Queue: 2 jobs
Job 1
Amino acid sequence: MTTISRRAFLGTSGVGLGLGLLGGCAPAMKGDFAPKGGPRVVVIGGGWGGATAAKYVRLADPTIEVVLLEPNKEFVSCPLSNLVLSGVRTIDSLTFGYGGLRSHGVRILHEAAAAIEPDARRVRVAEGYLQYDRLIVSPGIEFQTEQIDGLAAAGDQVLHAWKAGPQTVELARRLHAMPDGGVFVLTIPPIAYRCPPGPYERTCQVAWYLKHNKPKSKLIVLDANPNIVSKTGLFRAAWKDYPNIDYRASSKVVKVDPGAREVTTEFGDKVKYDVVNVIPPQRAGTIAVQADLVGADKRWCEVNHVTYESVKHKGIHVIGDSTIGLPVPKSGTVANAMGKISASAVVHMLRGQEPPPMPPINVCYSWVSDREAMAVINSFKIENGKVVQIEQKLTPGQSQAFGQNALGWARSIWNDILG
Amino acid sequence: MTNLRRFLVGSAGFALLLVVVGAAAADPKDPGYVKAFSCSACHGYDGASRSDTVPVLAGMPAWYLKKAIEDYAAGKRPAAEMEPYAKMVLQLGVDDVAGYFARQKRPAPVTTDAAAVERGRAAATQCAVCHGASGKGDQSKGVPDLTGQPAGYLRNQMLLFKSDKRSTGDPNLSALKALMKTIPDEQYADLAAYFSSLR
């Protein structure tokens, strides 16, 4: 028994896989390629929400099979990735494997979910499908490239760097290669978008880098919103150290022309750049739109505030940045909290039990220099079945101590998601 | 090996796998399990913090975690990052949350600087008067257990006492704060390393 169990464990954990299997033909993903033996939860998306949900279903009930569909082989943290632009951190220091989830017995298939069939309770993968009893969808965001004229055609000439990875590294390279005296233009989309304070933290990091490395350069920030949308006073105070920032509110960018190295605002103002970073408007990840999980706005998914079950399709729970209607930001901490709470709800519902109401939490740290950070903190309660804020607090300014806390938060939550 | 084959190899032994990795340290049936989600992003679902500045809640006596939550919520321990959550935990049920973490297994101490531990051991006699020779504290006097906490957290708390930013004006802590002011700055890290190394 011990020997067989160990072999089974090794098989699932992906460690020490039988060499004999390596030589054969790959089985095709056709039909029901992994028949369900007992209760199964399928999770789509291995980011902050989905990876957490997969782990926490297994923690709550190891008799439930959990299958995580995530095309990427590695997890790259968006939080802290603005520090890659300033050269303070490397992308490698933000990149982690999924081995920890396997050790919890999560079965990971590095494939994309092609479609969801709610009535048949199955997810299509390549030419086959996976059956589920409950589905947790954590698809993140997708860019509404069509909202900015010329953006789709520009391809990699215009970077978003809003999903941490190769674009982050490439944007850092372009910033570092820019001649002293050059102009970096950052454009911010209208709310709602992933990580409300993120563009303003990026502003700090680019400005910090320019101040210390290219003192004749400037950073023009074109914000579609009428003001800084998060931690306004704290960012305004931080920017006093960066006279190289030219912040322009209510300046929605509607066109980009990489040939002319120029963006155009909705009022017709044209702004030249040497390096541009366009953060496009956003909506829920494509699978959520295809599966009709989004609301009338065709952008975001409305959910039950206790179970995270979609208001449109029973048996499908939606978490993370793709949700709307809760008084929470689209943050990593919130996605992590939704992952746990949805996992608990799913386990209770599979047993026919009432899920215990549990509100999410939020903390968003923002790095304003190479070592100083500040934060906004939110706590919530459930009232009449809805998430309601108890309190929002800001740190009293920025400090190196908050920077240490920000690092502590990152280490802890990465471990909570993946460890 | 293809993704699918790796996946199917796992599938074959799935039922047996449950036996092997099924025993989670944290019990989902515990009345504090779900409520502790308000803490787990930073402190870990099992209370075993992975950060040098975030305290370990696993095995922390329930009376002390409850006091800490009440002090944070009341602003006696001013901390922007804790006050909203402390208020949330009070609403959810602090006894359930404190009881849950008290039932978790304390992680083994991580010692990174043996020389600092030894220096701290020599300097710690002044702490033993209240915290005991073992560093385990004394509930009857409201003195907390210092053992096994991350060194960065312990050091930060000592500095908060020294500058009277924690429990300002509490007469029970005036002797502690007076003592803190006599400790040379370089000794805080040694004391923290020592208590952190204790089981």
Note: Chain B is about 55% helix and 0% strand.
Job 2
Amino acid sequence: MPQTKTSANRPRLAAVVTAYKRLLHPQHVVDRLLDGYGWAGTFHHPAMDVVSLYVDQRGEGDLSQERMDRHPTMKMYPTIAETLTLGTSKLAVDGVVVVAEHGTYPLTEKGIMKHPHFEFFEQVTKVFRDSGRSVPYFNDKELSWNWDWSKQMVDTSHQLGFPLQGGSSLAVTWRVPSVEFPSGAAVHEAVSVGYGGMGSYDFHGLETIQCMVERRKGGETGVEWLQTYRGEGFWTAWQQGVWSQALVKAALCRSSTLAPGSATFTDTFPSTEQMRALVPDPVAYNYQHRDGLRCTMLLLNGLVRDFTFAAAIEGQAKPFSTQMYLPMPDGRTTLASFFSPLVYNAEQMFLTGKAQYPIERTLLTSGLLIAGVDSAYQGMQRVQTANLAAVHYQPNPESTFWRS
Amino acid sequence: MLTRRRFVGYSALSSAMLAYRPLLHNGWGQAPAQRPLRLAILGSTYRYQSQMQTLADRFLVGYPYDGEWHLPNLQVVSVYVDQLARQAEAAPSPYQLAMTGAKVAPASSAKGTAGGLGRQHAVAAQPAPEKSEQMSDLSRARSHQFGFRLCSNIPEALRCGGDRIAVDAVLTIVEQDDYPSNDKGQILLPSYDFFQQCVQVFEDEGHAVPYFNHKQLSFSFEQAQTMVKTANRLRFPLLAGSSLPVTWRLPDVDIPLGAEVEEAVMVAGGYDSMDFDALEALQCMLERRKGGETGVKAVQLLEGDDVWAAGKTGRWSNDLLSSALSRSDTPLGLTVLDGRTQDLVASGVLPQLVKNPAAYCIEYNDGMRATLLLLNGAIMDFNIAARVAGHGMVSTQFFLPPPPNVTDSACLAAKIEQTFQTGSAAYPVERALLTTGVLEACLTSRHKLNQRLETPQLAVKYQPPAESQYART
């Protein structure tokens, strides 16, 4: 529950971002903290102040000066350390907001952009160590493109004892219908169907699955192996039933953007032949959890422009399914409101000093993304994931998705 | 990228698939338990993304419902398209053509009109048909593909070419095609004519079947009243309305049944010709208040600067307006410029964004007040907030999924099918009746220089369904 703070005692936040431009994640996240947003039927103003800002890449389209002009309490600093110390010698803020998505960074040899989540983390935690004090840390999206670094980030947060919370908005946005995965249910198989590319939106699909299946009987046990399927191999696996076609169909029946397979129709369920025609480059990450649960994350560009989920739950006659709804400002909306629950949950962490959902979820999904790209790089070989087999955790029994 | 050639190639394949219904049934493991109901579909125009195409197709190819692709146990046996009938009437007869030596013209493509297709503005990523295909009639192609009878008049559609009524239900989708308007700005949609022609057949044969009327019953409340009375007299279920009351809500909330509601504000924008839909969505929530619906005492439609002036004098609650706007995902102005969030009320920016605001002010007989604010230029979605005793402000967005799928119409298809299958309207037609009357009275107010009008004719009383009827599963 939010703590009541006096106006003099509002948490002070440092924002550390890649690029502050229109419709980039830093703009969505930091703007909400500065300007507020619609929440629970009112225009909500967060009970905290962003007092300092570090922008790694400025240039054309940069909005940070405009934001500082309207919010003079926020000052820009040339280094991350100064952003946290406010130019003094010690940590001088009560929370850190890191948004390291977007911007322009080199690619790895496997094609993942080297977003500086870890580099930012290192500089932030150096200030924590030097000051002998740590504060809650929000990290948008994945931990790092490098597994060892991702693991190190989680380990460091435990060593220094600060809450670290991150992940994708998919885990916390509206669901249509508004349903939660039954706590403690036995689940045999789960799928998500989404769109976008590997090394970016695959993370959203993985979080879509993980925020649900982590609630299963026994909690999360880790992942043993993963195999990526693309191109013709995808369709062969589809036909062979490597993942359940019934579950994919159930997920697709939750989509509101299913591409009509036939000209002049506006909403039809596509045949497999139509899907093949609509989706020139399908992607699947098929992976096995240690307790036997099999999951598959599908990216079907050309067929859908939303994220849906379906699972076979023991004792339920038909698949459990929903859409993780993203009001997407690509012509459908003007406001990426799915950042509102992400920011709201971050606020709750800053106010309570407790993570609202375990960082191990994000550790696992960050690792699954890396494994998915690795498998594709190795010619669609199955990759053993001993590192991910060691990620065990229990979910927050409370639901944290957008319902009010 | 999918090329047009490839797309068309596969769509030919799909046509064969779609036409072969048993295959679809097997694919989904659904076996019809009983003889399918025979359905006649009557509408204005069957062109791409028309309301008729969007809704009628669902009874041909199925629709998403409750997590499955649902294939209704209904057989579309006949279709009547008013546009084709009117074109045929206007065209020269074969005799005239022969006399002038002209050749028989090929089936002409329909005339495009601006109104009635308010939901095409959004981005469609899918390959859409060519422009000419979009505007041309699809009913002939559908008739070939699905084997229904394409009829040249309404009695023929109900009798399927025979001499007795040969359908179990009638679905009508009357929408703007190129119908004229009156001096109040109402499009003279022939919903009442469609209904009366069906009733004539029902009366002639002493047999009436369930009837769905898309959106408002008529431009005229008097005609709408006659329609409801006729359905009661002949004892056939009549369902009417739009998809807005039955679509998903963000969040999933309703007015608690029997709660005291003091006031409600609906705020909408971005769509043409959707004031009926917005008023009906408002009504579907307010009818749940303590005592049920008691009817409307007076209305006033304000426009222009009078809207802002009325807001300042407390004609509606600014808190409710602010609450409703907090549910919008489509603020315009600075949000479009640089992505920022905006408190549109507190910033005072609304008068700059909205050039032609309209406020539909409604006073109910039991003292409740409601206002529909049409704020084109400020937002592009539909949101409501109501002050409910003991529950504070209840607010939500009526979710309109993007074109071309517009899956809210699947939610409506499910209610239509339920009405046809059970022989009982899924919700009272009095909701659409009252909304039809409120809309007409508001447009009359506008015509009378925005006067407040007493509406004794709108003493429409009814009780809501105990269960909420919007999509939740």
Note: Confidence is low (pLDDT under 50) at residues 1-6 of chain A.
